[in-house]
Every structure is written in C-alpha cells, then in structure tokens.
Amino acid sequence: QVQLMESGGGLVQAGGSLRLSCAASTASGIALRYSTMGWYRQAPGKQRELVATITSGRSTNYADFVKGRFTISRDNAKNTVYLQMNSLEPEDTAVYYCNVASKYWGQGTQVTVSS
User: Fold this and answer.
1) d(CA 43, CA 33)
2) pLDDT tens digits, one per residue of 4-58
3) How far apart (Å, rounded) are the C-alpha atoms in residues 77 and 60?
4) Which residues, 6 or more positions from 96, have their beta carbon under 8 angstroms from its beta carbon?
5) Share of the chain above pLDDT 90, in %
6) Counting Cβ atoms within 10 Å, is residue 71 exposed (0-12), middle (13-18) or buried (19+)?
7) What's 97's DSSP letter?
8) In the predicted model, what is the mean pLDDT of the chain?
C-alpha cells in the first residue's frame, strides 16, 4: 500500500505562483523511484484530467493547457513529486491530485485562483 500526502495548495491571485508537493510512503518496500508520478486535477462539474507526469528517468509529459507555465519534478531520495505552477489563471482552479504508478491517489489539495 502506498500513501500520498499532498500540500501546497491555497488561494492565489491570477498571475501568481504555487508549488505543490506530494510525499509518498510505503510500508511494503515498493521501490517508488521506479514508478511514474503525476498530477491530475478536477474542477467542479468536470472530469479529472491529466496535468503532468514524470517517469523514473525524469521524462516529462504535460497537458497542453499548462505547457510553459507548470513544471513537474521529483526527488527520489524523498519519494516526493513537485508541481511548480506559475502564471496561474482562474481556469486553473481545481482540486489537484497526486498519482503514483497510475494506481495510487492522494486526497487532493485545493487550488483557487482569483481574477
């Protein structure tokens, strides 16, 4: 079993920045450093959508709507994945979820961008 703890969400004005963190822990000895980690988001009334992923080799993939604004990174020593979000827009308002290995989900952290 993998547990994910997200942090860093909050309220920010349009054009501002936030940095999300997601720390993964496991008691089962799963080698998280070999897993793809990612961020997804879900806005009210909408389906959950991919924001960005990063593989164990640090290859990244971004949704078109965040390219050039968001950066995903990871620290394998800490089993942590980050999402640096710059130039935030009101349309980025959503609950952001961390994901590991396309299987494990965090509880989500709210990001609200005011206009």
Assistant:
1) 29
2) 999 999 999 999 999 999 999 886 656 788 899 999 999 999 999 999 999 999 9
3) 18
4) 6, 9, 20, 39, 40, 41, 51, 83, 108, 109, 110, 111
5) 80
6) middle
7) E
8) 93
